[in-house]
């Protein structure tokens, strides 16, 4: 009897036997093609949507011992196959030659374990150095030193498209501003830090408390300054659109097809996808995504815009953010001429962007004028 199957250094399948005094567990068919793909060193992406290195990182993070059953390696592979294909439990059961009840239990157990290690892979920046690194990354990404960071009420991402915070649970029919008001980032008021503020799309209100949030100018625009501001607003959103696009491409069956799971399980599945996405970004296992076309802003709630941008932006200026012109203006008003390493670019703003299940984000540096 085999308690687990692992790959040896020479690529051979190695069986670890275990003596069970009460009963025997889980005889594994090592000739299952999907298992041979993993254990014989073949490309794992077609079946699991993750490369071998990313899978090993995940296995190392879970590190859950099993006293009985199929073993953590096989259970993780079953979960990855399910989340990669979106197949019904009965289909996965046929692929692995296991009972449907075992497949159901494995999928839910590993999903719980992946969500439990979420903070290892999804976390807010902890130091000023991390914030500055993100700032410089977004400056390079946008070709403008004022373009600093991307973030969202439900999912916050850095300049590499790696999620640094997630908030799941609301259905897509709930308005963006309500999701924001119920999110931890809003209720705690601890993020972004002082001197930073959030750029939200037209579906959010302008806020100064409990966090500073600025929305784009509504159409029709009345000046070139407003147009330039909105242009940079849109550029910031693109990085998060691409981050979501990568995750949607990798787990296409999860996001583009009906998922046969209970609604209460969906947030865990999406969170697990975000964790797996970050693991893949960390090991350089990325997928190619076509350029994302930016859509129109969602319709605002009635109270949106109750607080003026003019009340927020000068306040940020008092915090030390110098006015800086758009790259389209061919001039700089910052005294240091705003190189990519400009100290004033340590300040950031975040951009909230909605999705039917998630709110995503993009962002750039705030200015009190764009002339």
From TrEMBL:
Cofactor(s) listed: a divalent metal cation
Any one of the GO CC terms: nucleus
Compartments in which it is found: Nucleus
InterPro entries: HARBI1-like (IPR045249), HARBI1_dom (IPR027806)
Gene Ontology molecular-function annotations: hydrolase activity; metal ion binding; nuclease activity
Keyword annotations: Hydrolase, Metal-binding, Nuclease, Nucleus
Domain DDE Tnp4 residues, every copy: 153-278
Transmembrane regions: none
Domain of life, source organism: Eukaryota
Chief place where the protein resides: nucleus
Family (UniProt): Belongs to the HARBI1 family.
PANTHER family: NUCLEASE HARBI1 (PTHR22930:SF206), PTHR22930
The protein, known as: Nuclease HARBI1
Organism: Merluccius polli
Gene: Harbi1_148
């Amino acid at each position: 009897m085999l308690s687990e199957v692992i790959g040896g250094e020479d690529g051979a399948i190695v069986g670890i036997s275990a003596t069970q005094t009460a009963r025997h567990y889980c005889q594994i068919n090592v000739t299952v093609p999907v298992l041979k793909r993993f254990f014989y060193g073949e490309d794992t992406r077609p079946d699991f949507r993750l490369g071998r290195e990313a899978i090993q990182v995940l296995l190392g993070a879970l590190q859950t011992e099993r006293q009985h059953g199929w073993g953590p390696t096989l259970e993780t592979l079953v979960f990855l196959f399910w989340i990669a294909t979106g197949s019904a439990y009965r289909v996965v059961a046929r692929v692995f030659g296991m009972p449907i009840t075992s497949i159901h239990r494995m999928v839910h157990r590993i999903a719980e374990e992946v969500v439990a290690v979420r903070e290892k892979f999804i976390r807010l920046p902890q130091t000023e150095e991390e914030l500055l690194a993100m700032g410089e990354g977004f400056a390079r990404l946008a070709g403008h030193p004022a373009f600093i960071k991307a973030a969202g009420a439900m999912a916050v991402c850095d300049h590499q498209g790696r999620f640094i915070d997630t908030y799941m649970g609301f259905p897509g029919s709930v308005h963006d501003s309500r999701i924001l008001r119920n999110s931890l980032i809003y209720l705690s008021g601890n993020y972004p830090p002082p001197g930073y503020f959030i750029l939200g799309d037209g579906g959010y209100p302008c806020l100064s408390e409990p966090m500073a949030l600025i929305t784009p100018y509504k159409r029709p625009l009345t000046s070139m300054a407003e147009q330039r501001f909105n242009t940079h607003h849109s550029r910031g959103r693109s990085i998060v659109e691409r981050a979501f696009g990568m995750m949607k491409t990798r787990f296409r069956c999860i996001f583009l097809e009906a998922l046969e799971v209970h609604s209460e399980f969906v947030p865990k599945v999406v969170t697990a996808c975000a964790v797996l996405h970050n693991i893949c970004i960390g090991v350089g296992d990325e997928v190619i995504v076509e350029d994302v076309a930016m859509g129109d802003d969602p319709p605002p709630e009635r109270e949106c815009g109750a607080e003026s941008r003019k009340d927020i932006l000068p306040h940020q200026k008092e915090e030390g953010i110098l006015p800086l012109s758009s790259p389209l203006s061919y001039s700089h008003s910052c005294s240091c001429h705003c190189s990519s390493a400009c100290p004033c670019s340590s300040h950031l703003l975040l951009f909230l962007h909605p999705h039917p299940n998630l709110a995503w984000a993009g962002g750039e540096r705030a200015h009190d004028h764009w002339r």
